[in-house]
Amino acid sequence: MTCGGVPALSTCPWQYDESIQVGTDYRDEGEVRCYDERMQRLRDTAGEIDAIRQAVELAEDMIVLEIGTGTGELALGLARHCRHVFAVDVSETMLTYAGNKARGRGATNVSFHRGGFLSGFQPPSRVDAVVSQLALHHLPDFWKGIAVRRLWGALKPGGRLYLRDVVFPSATEDYDAYFSAAIGEIRSKAGEEMARSVANHIQKEFSTLDWILEGILARAGFRILRKDVDGMLTAYGCMKQPG
Fold it and tell me: How many domains does the chain have?
């Protein structure tokens, strides 16, 4: 669903505006700095990069598109193992922060661009892999479907998609108990602030059920090669199938 290739609200007034962020406002520079510091403490970025490299079979000659790059830590890590990373985010503040980080580290094969799943930057040609972590949940389910179809279109034939996000298991009988236990575990591992952040996510953002997201991937033309579940987080490694 595009207007002249790249959707624009001015010409497509029905399009969802993904620049309006739900939940935490990452247009605030102080919030972005706190987010980066918190993620540096809590995330195993090296482990995430290894998982992505395996899932997309990353090679030195490959070009990667990352959507929802945030403060750029993952893009900079992946760039050490491929030809170029196009790193995209809807937050100008995030992009400025990430760009400064890249310059400070002397990274020359990462470029940062304003955009998201539905609008903004598009790579000049199809890419070998698309990576997105903890970003698709910003879209309601209908727009997730449109977004995933656009990811399919951005990939070369046989290209790989790595998608990791908060996904709720459909086999759960009692979600109140499920969420209470999950938040309790997060509180014990990462503290009260992170527990409140997760509760806020569940209440206000658009994470969906596994059967819905897996159906969206299949209908868009992806074959799920692997599925890794870690608490409320699920990572899908997918391959683009012929259209």
Answer: 1
CATH number of the domain bearing residue 234:
3.40.50.150
**What is the structure's pLDDT at 11?**
65
Q: Which residue has the tokens 């992170």?
A: 194
* Structural domain includes residue 193: no
**What is the reported pLDDT for 23?**
58
Query: Is the entire prediction scored with pTM above 0.70?
Result: yes
DSSP 121-167: ---SS-EEEEEEES-GGGS-HHHHHHHHHHHHHHEEEEEEEEEEEEE
Range of the domain at 148: 29-168+207-240
Q: Fill in the amino acid letter for 15.
A: Q
Convert the pLDDT of each residue in 188-202 to its tens digit.
988 898 899 899 999
Give dist(CA 44, CA 224) in Å, integer: 24
187 is written with which tokens?
């509180």
